[in-house]
């Protein structure tokens, strides 16, 4: 009886090994599915880069219009697809420029689909803010309240070129 149990266990182990080997080969061949924590697009619905809030509870889509010096932030859901209205009146960007702290307040902007008294975007037209965001080591941080909870995120622009100031 002992020999039969040992063979049965070895057979089960061999079957498990075979299943794992096939799964590993399939993942290598076809690509592994995205991790559960990052099952969202790289860009938001408007084409802008995303900032993660909390444990990916929400996302902020960043739209920077250099021609008009306008920064627009869209509040998105965990999947970074649907707009999320909030009753916050403003979002804050805190940064350092020339070693001095600065704060910019982006007023809430109600979109057509937002309920009365709520907004899913924040926007500020400010040449100094756009200029400061391009400086390296500005330690820019976003602070915003969504559904009564405060969130912060490191705010970084990806640079393809250097700014000489």
Secondary-structure map with pairings?
Blueprint (H helix, E strand, L loop, with lengths): L1 H29 L19 E4 L4 E8 L4 E7 L13 E8 L2 E10 L11 E5 L1 H7 L7 E6 L2 E6 L11
Antiparallel strand pairs: 1-2, 2-3, 3-6, 4-5, 4-7, 5-6, 7-8
Short characterization:
Helix content is 22%, strand content 33%. It contains 2 helices and 8 strands; from the N terminus they run H-E-E-E-E-E-E-H-E-E.
What can you see in these coordinates?
The chain is an alpha+beta fold. The chain has two domains: 2-33; 41-154, Immunoglobulin-like (Sandwich), CATH 2.60.40. Helices cover 22% and strands 33% of the residues. It has two helices and eight strands. It has helices at 2-30, 127-133, and strands spanning 50-53, 58-65, 70-76, 90-97, 100-109, 121-125, 141-146, 149-154. Strands 1-2-3-6-5-4-7-8 form an eight-stranded antiparallel beta sheet, with helices on one face. Strand 7 and strand 8 form a beta hairpin. The longest helix has 29 residues, at 2-30. Mean pLDDT is 80; it is low at 1-7, 12-37 and 160-165.
Number of strands: 8
Our measurement of the CA-to-CA distance between the termini, rounded to an integer number of angstroms, reads 83 Å
| Number of helices in the DSSP assignment | 2
Give the count of structural domains: 2
List the main descriptive attributes of the protein structure presented here.
about 160 residues; alpha+beta; Immunoglobulin-like; globular; disordered C terminus
């Amino acid at each position: 009886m002992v020999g039969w149990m040992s063979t049965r266990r070895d057979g089960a182990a061999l079957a498990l090994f075979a299943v794992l080997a096939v799964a590993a080969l399939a993942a290598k061949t076809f690509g592994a599915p995205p991790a559960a924590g990052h099952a969202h697009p790289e860009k938001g619905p408007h084409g802008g880069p995303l900032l993660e809030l909390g444990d990916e509870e929400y996302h902020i889509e960043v739209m920077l219009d250099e021609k008009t010096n306008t920064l627009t932030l869209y509040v998105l859901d965990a999947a970074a697809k649907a707009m999320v209205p909030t009753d916050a009146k403003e979002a804050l960007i805190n940064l350092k420029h020339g070693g001095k702290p600065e704060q910019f307040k982006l007023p809430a902007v109600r979109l057509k689909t937002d309920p009365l008294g709520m907004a899913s975007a924040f926007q500020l037209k400010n040449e100094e803010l756009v200029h400061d965001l391009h400086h390296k080591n500005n330690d820019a941080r976003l602070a915003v309240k969504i559904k009564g909870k405060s969130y912060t995120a490191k705010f970084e622009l990806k640079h393809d070129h250097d700014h000489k100031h």
